[in-house]
Amino acid sequence: MPGKVFLVGAGPGDPELLTLKALKALRNADVVLHDDLVGAEILKLIPGTAQVQNIGKRCGRKGITQQEINALLVNYALLDLQVVRLKGGDPLVFGRVGEEMEALCTAHIEFEIVPGITAALGAAATAQIPLTHRDASSALVLITNHQAKNGKSNWPTSLPANATIVVYMPGYRYEATAQKLVQSGLDASTPCAIISHATAEDQQAFLTNIQDLSNSPHLPAPTLLVVGEVARFASDSALAQFSLFVPVSVGPEFQFENLQKQESSE
User: Fold this and answer.
1) Domain of 48, in residue numbers
2) What is the SS3 assignment for 7?
3) How many CB atoms within 10 Å of residue 28?
4) Which of 161, 153, 159 is nearest to 230 (CA)?
5) Is residue 225 pLDDT above 80, yes or no?
6) In what order do the strands lie in the sheet with 110-114?
7) CATH number of the CATH domain containing 41
8) Domain end among 114, 144, 169
9) Cα–Cα distance between 28 and 50 in angstroms, integer?
10) Fewer CB within 10 Å, N or C, the chain?
11) What pLDDT digit, counting tens, does each position of 87-107 carry?
């Protein structure tokens, strides 16, 4: 068979959320080039005959460049191999897939995109937060708090008040993030949730609001920040499945007891 590259989304972490098409691509792969965020349980699905290489660039660590990744994809495909570029979440959402597509097109390499469940959907599902709600949110905005190497930020100057904002790679500069949210037009009392390792066994969540965001704990990366009135609909029964940090109150109709305090008193 001629060489072909599959740009595959591995989903947010839970191996059961991997699509059937993604699983098929993995089982037929000669080479798998994967990111750091792809979980060990998903990597176990790769056949032992495939060459597997971690090409992650997580947390700004110095390592392989995007240009080198592009070259690997092209060169392996030119050897008539079936190549899977495995990315956490969905490859089309903050996954640099556009640059890889350009390199493959330039080299006249056939490729196919296999979508995955992006982290925003996985995080919202586990916390049972509706990302849209006709009484609270009529729009969904996905943005990243990660800056390019030149220091340029693509943070929007204005955000709609009736939208749910999901911030990928929010980092730990919560005070600065809160300031940007307010400067973009959101009220300081707007509720938000920090969700760590969404859909994984060690997932954690913290519910707060923009005003108190700076007091939030530094949950382990990868994390997402969900901002908007829809956070008030978070299910306490769903959140009880998390290793959970919850303030006593983050606004009207948003009363949750601190489970850690409750457990320590029993």
Assistant:
1) 4-114
2) strand
3) 14
4) 161
5) yes
6) 51-54, 31-34, 82-87, 4-9, 110-114
7) 3.40.1010.10
8) 114
9) 9
10) C
11) 999 999 998 999 999 999 999
